[in-house]
C-alpha cells in the first residue's frame, strides 16, 4: 500500500514522499510527483530509509548500562523500570541541586514540530538549563535579520525559473538542497547564468556555469568589492534604495574601502573577475543569490552573510520575480507558537508547585559548548543530561571534551534514539524512539512554502515510543500539573494552527490531513521586499555597515579545514547504512591541493595525521585540485567507526562562536597535516 508522508529530516527540501508499506515493513520510498518542489524524486539517501527503519542498530526496547561508561554492555529493562529510574534520579537531582542541574540536548533529528519542539515543555516545567539551539542556523539568522529583519524568508523557489542570473554562494545545493536543481535548470533554460562561490570544487561547482574559488571566511570582502564596482559604475538602483532601504551612504563609504585589487589579495578572486561578476549581476536585474550556511560557519559568519544578502537589494533585484536572496523560508510559517514546547512557561510562568518549577531566568547553555558545559559548569554542575533528536558525541565541537564529560561517573545520561549511535553508547539508560513512519507530526520547511501533516503508517517497531510519550510519562511520575505537558500531537497541531494570520487562513488540521501538504497563502510571484523589509524601520538596513572579520590560519596550524556535508549522508542520520557509506567511498578522506601536499612531502593515498589545537585524527589523503591552496576539506560528519582511528572529525573543531548569533564555526579550523604510519 502506498501512503504519502513528509520527510522529517533536517534539509531545506522537506520532501513529500510516497512510501510503500507491507504489513509491518517499509519496503520502498519514492518522491511524490504531485508536490511542486519534490517533483517526483527523492534523494539518494532517503531512497535508503527502509534500511534505516529496519537496521540491526535500531534499539527496540529500553536498556540499562551494565558495563562501565561507554562500554556498550547493556541489560534489557521494561519501560516502567526505565521511566521510574529516570524519574527517581530527576527528583533527587532537583531536590539537591535545582532544575538547572538538568540539561536537555536536542536538535533536528526530526523537523516535526511536535516531536522536535514540544518535549521542551517538560524541561521548562522543571526549570532545567535552557539549551540555545545554535549549532546550525543562528549566525545566518542574525546576519539575515540585521539586513531584512524578522521573520525571515526570501525568494520563493517556485519563482527561481524567472531569475536571470544566479549565484549559489556558500551552498553545495546539489548535495544539500537537491530539489532546487530543477528550478535552476529551468532558469538556465530561460537564459540565466549560474555562478558558484565556494572554496572547493564540488557537485554544485560542476553543475554551475562558473565556479569562483574563494578563500574561506573572506566573503564580506568579496561582497564589498562587488558593491564597490556597482557604486563606482553607477549600477545601483537609486530609486529602489531611496524607497526601500536605509543607511546606504554609510555602506557605500565602507564599500569604497574595497577596490577589487584589495579584495583579490584577501579573497583570492582575481580583480577582473570581480568586476565582471558585478557588472553581469547588476545588468541582469532579476538576480538571485541563494546563500547557504557555509559562509556563516566562521568567526565573521553573520556579518559576511549580511554583506552578501545586501547585494541584490543594492541593484533592486527584489522588484523582479526570482530576484533577491534566499537563506531560509522558515519564518513564513506564522504558526501560533505561544504554547509550543511550553514557551509560555518562560514568559508567563505559573506558580511553582512540587516539581513544577518553571524558571524564566534559567541558565542558558550554548549547544556548541557542550564540552565546557559538562566539564566546567558549576553552581550547579550538570547532573542529568537528556539527549534526544541529536548525536552530540559526533556532531558537537570538541569531541574529546564531550566524551570526557559523558564519562563523568556522577553524570546521569539518558539517550532517546532511533539508532545505537556513538552518543547512545554512553547512555546510562537508552530508550527506543519511533521514526516518522510511526508517529504523527506537523512539518514546516526551510526551503519552500508548504505546510504538511503526517499520520503514522506503521505500528512502532518493538517497544519504540514517540519523544512526546516519554515526556508525558515522566511528567506523570513527577506529578507535574501543567496541561500542555499532556497534549497529544493533534492538540499541539491545533494550537499551532490557531491564528488569524492571512497566510494560514483556511489551513486547518482537517485540510492538511486530507491534502497532505498545503501552500501558505502567499501571492505568486512572491515579492516580499519589493518596497521594504521586516526591520523596525520597515527598510532594508545597510547601516551600520557589516565589519569584515576574516578567518585566519595560525603559525602552528597554517591550513584551514572545512567540514561540509556529504552527498549521501544527512548529518549523522544515515551514517550507519553500509550502502551509503560505500557510496561515499567507505571511509572519510581528507582533500588537499597538490601545492600543499608537495610542501609537506605528502602523496595521494597515504595516511595522514591532522591536528588542531583541540586534538588529532588519522585519515587517508586525497591530493586533488578541488580545494583552494591553503584549504583542506573533509566532506561528511561520519560516524567515527568508519575512520582509520575511529575518531569523529569534531575532535579537531573548537567551541569558538560566530560574531552574532552564538553560532558554530565548523569551517574555520586551523590545522596542520603530517604523515602518519600505515596501520
Ligand atoms: N546531502 C546532505 N544534505 C544536507 C545535509 C547533509 O548532511 N547532507 N545537511 C543539512 C543541514 S543540517 C544543513 S544546515 C544544510 C547545510 O548545507 P549548506 O547550506 O550547503 O551549508 P554548508 O554545508 O555548511 O556549506 C556549504 C558550502 O559552503 C562552503 N563554504 C565553507 N566555508 C565557506 C566560506 O567561507 N565561504 C563560502 N563562500 N563558502 C564556504 C563549503 O565548502 C560548502 O561547499 O544542508 C542540509 N542538507
Ligand atoms: N564538523 C561538522 N560538524 C557538524 C556539521 C558540519 O557541517 N561539520 N553540521 C552541523 C549541523 S549543520 C547540524 S544541523 C548538526 C546536526 O546535528 P544533529 O541534529 O544531532 O543531527 P544528526 O547527526 O542527524 O543526529 C540526529 C539524531 O536524532 C535521531 N532522531 C531522529 N528522529 C528522532 C526522533 O523522532 N526522536 C528521537 N529521540 N531521535 C530522533 C537520529 O536517529 C539521529 O541519531 O550537526 C552539526 N555538526
Ligand atoms: Mo544544519
UniProtKB/TrEMBL annotation:
Enzyme Commission identifier(s): 1.7.99.4
Q: Which family does it belong to?
A: Belongs to the prokaryotic molybdopterin-containing oxidoreductase family.
Q: Which cofactor does it need?
A: Mo-bis(molybdopterin guanine dinucleotide)
Q: Which UniProt keywords apply?
A: Iron, Iron-sulfur, Metal-binding, Molybdenum, Oxidoreductase
Q: Which domain of life is it from?
A: Bacteria
Looking at the record, the residues that make up the 4Fe-4S Mo/W bis-MGD-type domain are: 1-57
The species this protein belongs to is: Marinithermus hydrothermalis (strain DSM 14884 / JCM 11576 / T1)
Q: Which Pfam families match?
A: Molybdop_Fe4S4 (PF04879), Molybdopterin (PF00384), Molydop_binding (PF01568)
| CDD domains on file | MopB_3 (cd02766), MopB_CT_3 (cd02786)
The record's annotation in Gene3D superfamilies points to: 2.40.40.20, 3.40.50.740, ADC-like domains, Dimethylsulfoxide Reductase, domain 2, Formate dehydrogenase/DMSO reductase
Q: What is this protein called?
A: Nitrate reductase
Q: What class of enzyme is it?
A: oxidoreductase
Q: Name one GO molecular function term.
A: molybdopterin cofactor binding
Q: Per its UniProt record, what InterPro entries does this chain match?
A: Asp_de-COase-like_dom_sf, MoPterin_dinucl-bd_dom, Mopterin_OxRdtase, Mopterin_OxRdtase_4Fe-4S_dom, Mopterin_OxRdtase_prok_CS, Prok_Mopterin_Oxidored, YoaE_C
